[in-house]
Design goal:
With 264 residues, this protein is an all-alpha fold. The protein has a domain of 103 residues. Helices cover 71% and strands 0% of the residues. It is built from 11 helices and no strands. The protein is elongated.
Length: 264
Protein backbone atom coordinates (compact mmCIF):
# COMPACT_ATOMS: atom_id res chain seq x y z
CA UNK A 1 0.00 0.00 0.00
CA UNK A 2 2.83 2.40 0.78
CA UNK A 3 4.48 1.73 -2.57
CA UNK A 4 1.19 2.12 -4.46
CA UNK A 5 0.64 5.53 -2.86
CA UNK A 6 4.17 6.91 -3.02
CA UNK A 7 5.19 5.59 -6.45
CA UNK A 8 2.83 7.59 -8.69
CA UNK A 9 2.99 10.66 -6.44
CA UNK A 10 6.80 10.79 -6.44
CA UNK A 11 6.91 10.21 -10.19
CA UNK A 12 4.58 13.13 -10.81
CA UNK A 13 6.47 15.45 -8.45
CA UNK A 14 9.90 14.45 -9.76
CA UNK A 15 8.84 15.49 -13.27
CA UNK A 16 8.54 19.03 -11.93
CA UNK A 17 11.30 19.24 -9.34
CA UNK A 18 13.89 16.64 -10.38
CA UNK A 19 14.74 13.19 -9.09
CA UNK A 20 17.53 13.81 -6.59
CA UNK A 21 15.50 14.90 -3.56
CA UNK A 22 12.81 12.20 -3.89
CA UNK A 23 15.19 9.32 -4.71
CA UNK A 24 17.64 10.24 -1.96
CA UNK A 25 14.88 10.82 0.58
CA UNK A 26 13.26 7.49 -0.30
CA UNK A 27 16.50 5.58 0.23
CA UNK A 28 17.08 7.36 3.55
CA UNK A 29 13.56 6.42 4.67
CA UNK A 30 14.16 2.78 3.72
CA UNK A 31 17.37 2.81 5.78
CA UNK A 32 15.42 4.21 8.76
CA UNK A 33 12.87 1.40 8.50
CA UNK A 34 15.63 -1.22 8.58
CA UNK A 35 17.00 0.43 11.70
CA UNK A 36 13.49 0.19 13.14
CA UNK A 37 13.39 -3.52 12.32
CA UNK A 38 16.73 -3.90 14.12
CA UNK A 39 15.28 -2.29 17.23
CA UNK A 40 12.03 -4.27 17.05
CA UNK A 41 11.79 -6.80 19.91
CA UNK A 42 11.32 -10.48 19.21
CA UNK A 43 7.80 -10.52 20.64
CA UNK A 44 6.40 -7.43 18.89
CA UNK A 45 2.94 -6.07 18.26
CA UNK A 46 1.59 -6.34 14.72
CA UNK A 47 0.93 -2.61 14.36
CA UNK A 48 4.63 -1.91 14.96
CA UNK A 49 5.68 -4.29 12.21
CA UNK A 50 2.95 -3.07 9.84
CA UNK A 51 3.99 0.56 10.35
CA UNK A 52 7.60 -0.22 9.47
CA UNK A 53 6.50 -2.16 6.39
CA UNK A 54 4.30 0.74 5.26
CA UNK A 55 7.14 3.23 5.69
CA UNK A 56 9.48 0.88 3.82
CA UNK A 57 7.02 0.74 0.93
CA UNK A 58 6.68 4.54 0.90
CA UNK A 59 10.46 4.94 0.80
CA UNK A 60 10.78 2.39 -2.01
CA UNK A 61 8.05 4.17 -3.97
CA UNK A 62 9.72 7.55 -3.48
CA UNK A 63 12.93 6.12 -4.95
CA UNK A 64 11.72 3.90 -7.79
CA UNK A 65 9.92 6.27 -10.17
CA UNK A 66 12.30 9.28 -9.96
CA UNK A 67 15.36 7.06 -10.31
CA UNK A 68 13.95 5.33 -13.38
CA UNK A 69 13.01 8.69 -14.92
CA UNK A 70 16.51 10.04 -14.30
CA UNK A 71 18.05 7.03 -16.02
CA UNK A 72 15.82 7.31 -19.08
CA UNK A 73 16.30 11.08 -19.35
CA UNK A 74 20.09 10.75 -19.35
CA UNK A 75 20.34 8.78 -22.61
CA UNK A 76 19.56 9.82 -26.21
CA UNK A 77 16.12 9.08 -27.53
CA UNK A 78 17.24 6.33 -29.92
CA UNK A 79 19.03 4.48 -27.08
CA UNK A 80 16.24 4.50 -24.52
CA UNK A 81 14.97 1.07 -25.48
CA UNK A 82 18.39 -0.45 -24.79
CA UNK A 83 18.73 1.60 -21.61
CA UNK A 84 15.33 0.39 -20.38
CA UNK A 85 16.31 -3.21 -21.10
CA UNK A 86 19.60 -2.90 -19.23
CA UNK A 87 17.89 -1.21 -16.29
CA UNK A 88 15.33 -4.02 -16.04
CA UNK A 89 18.06 -6.65 -16.39
CA UNK A 90 20.18 -5.20 -13.60
CA UNK A 91 17.13 -4.68 -11.38
CA UNK A 92 15.93 -8.27 -11.72
CA UNK A 93 19.46 -9.63 -11.30
CA UNK A 94 19.92 -7.51 -8.19
CA UNK A 95 16.66 -8.75 -6.68
CA UNK A 96 17.63 -12.40 -7.22
CA UNK A 97 21.16 -11.88 -5.90
CA UNK A 98 19.90 -9.99 -2.85
CA UNK A 99 17.63 -12.88 -1.89
CA UNK A 100 20.55 -15.30 -2.10
CA UNK A 101 22.93 -13.02 -0.19
CA UNK A 102 20.42 -12.17 2.55
CA UNK A 103 19.37 -15.78 3.11
CA UNK A 104 23.01 -16.87 3.22
CA UNK A 105 23.75 -14.23 5.86
CA UNK A 106 20.61 -15.19 7.78
CA UNK A 107 21.60 -18.86 7.86
CA UNK A 108 25.19 -17.95 8.77
CA UNK A 109 24.05 -15.87 11.73
CA UNK A 110 21.55 -18.55 12.71
CA UNK A 111 24.15 -21.32 12.58
CA UNK A 112 26.41 -19.46 14.99
CA UNK A 113 23.90 -19.73 17.88
CA UNK A 114 21.27 -22.31 16.90
CA UNK A 115 23.08 -25.60 17.81
CA UNK A 116 23.81 -24.55 21.38
CA UNK A 117 20.33 -23.12 21.89
CA UNK A 118 18.57 -26.22 20.51
CA UNK A 119 20.75 -28.58 22.55
CA UNK A 120 20.21 -26.73 25.82
CA UNK A 121 16.49 -26.25 25.17
CA UNK A 122 15.88 -29.93 24.43
CA UNK A 123 17.89 -31.07 27.44
CA UNK A 124 15.92 -28.68 29.67
CA UNK A 125 12.68 -30.14 28.25
CA UNK A 126 13.73 -33.67 29.28
CA UNK A 127 15.22 -35.01 26.01
CA UNK A 128 18.26 -37.30 26.51
CA UNK A 129 21.54 -35.51 25.92
CA UNK A 130 22.67 -37.79 23.07
CA UNK A 131 19.44 -37.21 21.17
CA UNK A 132 19.55 -33.46 21.82
CA UNK A 133 23.12 -33.24 20.47
CA UNK A 134 22.11 -35.18 17.34
CA UNK A 135 19.20 -32.85 16.61
CA UNK A 136 21.27 -29.74 17.35
CA UNK A 137 23.95 -30.76 14.83
CA UNK A 138 21.48 -30.82 11.92
CA UNK A 139 21.83 -28.04 9.27
CA UNK A 140 19.91 -24.88 10.15
CA UNK A 141 18.27 -24.59 6.71
CA UNK A 142 15.45 -26.91 7.75
CA UNK A 143 14.78 -24.81 10.84
CA UNK A 144 14.55 -21.65 8.71
CA UNK A 145 12.08 -23.22 6.28
CA UNK A 146 10.03 -24.63 9.16
CA UNK A 147 9.91 -21.21 10.79
CA UNK A 148 8.64 -19.57 7.59
CA UNK A 149 6.04 -22.31 7.11
CA UNK A 150 4.85 -22.13 10.72
CA UNK A 151 5.67 -25.81 11.24
CA UNK A 152 7.17 -27.47 14.31
CA UNK A 153 9.64 -30.11 13.07
CA UNK A 154 10.53 -31.51 16.51
CA UNK A 155 8.28 -34.55 16.24
CA UNK A 156 9.97 -35.62 13.00
CA UNK A 157 13.49 -34.69 14.17
CA UNK A 158 13.27 -36.52 17.50
CA UNK A 159 11.46 -39.57 16.17
CA UNK A 160 8.92 -41.81 17.91
CA UNK A 161 11.49 -43.65 20.02
CA UNK A 162 12.81 -40.45 21.65
CA UNK A 163 9.31 -39.17 22.25
CA UNK A 164 8.29 -42.47 23.84
CA UNK A 165 10.96 -41.96 26.50
CA UNK A 166 9.33 -38.70 27.60
CA UNK A 167 6.26 -38.16 29.69
CA UNK A 168 3.04 -37.21 27.85
CA UNK A 169 3.29 -33.66 29.21
CA UNK A 170 6.89 -33.26 28.02
CA UNK A 171 6.12 -34.70 24.57
CA UNK A 172 3.08 -32.44 24.24
CA UNK A 173 5.15 -29.37 25.16
CA UNK A 174 7.98 -30.15 22.71
CA UNK A 175 5.63 -30.84 19.79
CA UNK A 176 3.29 -27.97 20.66
CA UNK A 177 2.98 -24.65 18.76
CA UNK A 178 5.11 -22.57 21.17
CA UNK A 179 8.21 -24.63 21.92
CA UNK A 180 9.94 -24.40 18.54
CA UNK A 181 9.31 -20.65 17.94
CA UNK A 182 10.54 -19.78 21.42
CA UNK A 183 13.55 -22.05 20.93
CA UNK A 184 14.83 -20.45 17.72
CA UNK A 185 13.73 -16.86 18.43
CA UNK A 186 17.10 -15.75 19.80
CA UNK A 187 19.31 -17.28 17.06
CA UNK A 188 16.86 -16.15 14.37
CA UNK A 189 17.04 -12.60 15.68
CA UNK A 190 20.85 -12.76 15.52
CA UNK A 191 20.68 -13.73 11.85
CA UNK A 192 18.20 -10.94 11.08
CA UNK A 193 20.50 -8.45 12.80
CA UNK A 194 23.26 -9.27 10.32
CA UNK A 195 20.86 -8.99 7.36
CA UNK A 196 19.27 -5.69 8.43
CA UNK A 197 22.66 -4.15 9.26
CA UNK A 198 23.88 -4.90 5.73
CA UNK A 199 20.63 -3.49 4.33
CA UNK A 200 21.13 -0.23 6.24
CA UNK A 201 24.69 0.11 4.92
CA UNK A 202 23.60 -0.58 1.33
CA UNK A 203 20.76 1.96 1.53
CA UNK A 204 23.05 4.65 2.91
CA UNK A 205 25.65 4.03 0.19
CA UNK A 206 22.93 4.22 -2.46
CA UNK A 207 21.55 7.42 -0.89
CA UNK A 208 25.01 9.01 -1.03
CA UNK A 209 25.32 8.05 -4.71
CA UNK A 210 21.87 9.48 -5.38
CA UNK A 211 22.81 12.72 -3.67
CA UNK A 212 25.75 13.12 -6.06
CA UNK A 213 23.64 12.65 -9.18
CA UNK A 214 23.24 16.41 -9.66
CA UNK A 215 20.15 18.44 -10.36
CA UNK A 216 17.48 17.90 -12.94
CA UNK A 217 18.94 16.70 -16.24
CA UNK A 218 17.30 15.85 -19.56
CA UNK A 219 19.42 14.75 -22.53
CA UNK A 220 19.16 17.15 -25.46
CA UNK A 221 18.58 15.21 -28.66
CA UNK A 222 20.62 16.34 -31.66
CA UNK A 223 19.65 15.75 -35.28
CA UNK A 224 21.70 12.56 -35.30
CA UNK A 225 19.97 11.38 -32.14
CA UNK A 226 16.53 11.95 -33.66
CA UNK A 227 17.38 10.07 -36.86
CA UNK A 228 19.16 7.27 -35.04
CA UNK A 229 22.35 7.70 -37.16
CA UNK A 230 25.67 9.25 -36.33
CA UNK A 231 26.82 12.28 -38.35
CA UNK A 232 29.68 10.34 -39.97
CA UNK A 233 27.19 7.78 -41.26
CA UNK A 234 25.29 10.48 -43.12
CA UNK A 235 28.53 11.95 -44.50
CA UNK A 236 29.70 8.56 -45.77
CA UNK A 237 26.81 8.31 -48.26
CA UNK A 238 28.16 9.02 -51.80
CA UNK A 239 26.71 11.85 -53.81
CA UNK A 240 23.90 10.82 -56.11
CA UNK A 241 22.91 7.90 -53.87
CA UNK A 242 19.91 8.24 -51.66
CA UNK A 243 20.60 8.03 -47.97
CA UNK A 244 18.99 5.18 -46.02
CA UNK A 245 15.40 6.04 -45.34
CA UNK A 246 15.29 8.83 -47.94
CA UNK A 247 12.66 8.57 -50.73
CA UNK A 248 13.88 7.41 -54.16
CA UNK A 249 13.22 9.43 -57.31
CA UNK A 250 10.59 6.94 -58.45
CA UNK A 251 8.76 7.03 -55.12
CA UNK A 252 5.37 8.77 -55.34
CA UNK A 253 5.05 12.10 -53.56
CA UNK A 254 3.48 12.23 -50.15
CA UNK A 255 -0.29 12.12 -50.29
CA UNK A 256 -0.41 9.90 -53.41
CA UNK A 257 -1.99 6.46 -53.23
CA UNK A 258 -0.22 3.50 -54.77
CA UNK A 259 -2.26 0.56 -56.08
CA UNK A 260 -0.87 -2.84 -55.09
CA UNK A 261 -1.96 -6.03 -56.89
CA UNK A 262 -2.38 -8.82 -54.34
CA UNK A 263 -2.04 -12.53 -55.31
CA UNK A 264 -5.59 -13.32 -54.27
Amino acid sequence: MGFLIAGPASGRLSDRHGARAFATGGLALVAVTFVGLLLLPIDFYYWQFATLLALNGIGSGLFAAPNTTAIMNSVPRHQRGAASGMRATFQNAGMVLSIGVFFSLLIAGLAAHLPTTVRDGLIAAGVPRQTAVRVADLPPVGSVLSAFLGYNPMERLLGPQALAQLSPAQASEITGPRFFPNLIAGPFHSGLTVVFTLAVVMCLVAAAASMLRGGRYVHEDSDADRSGRLPQEAAAVPSGVAAPGAPMQDDPPKGWRTAVRLPW
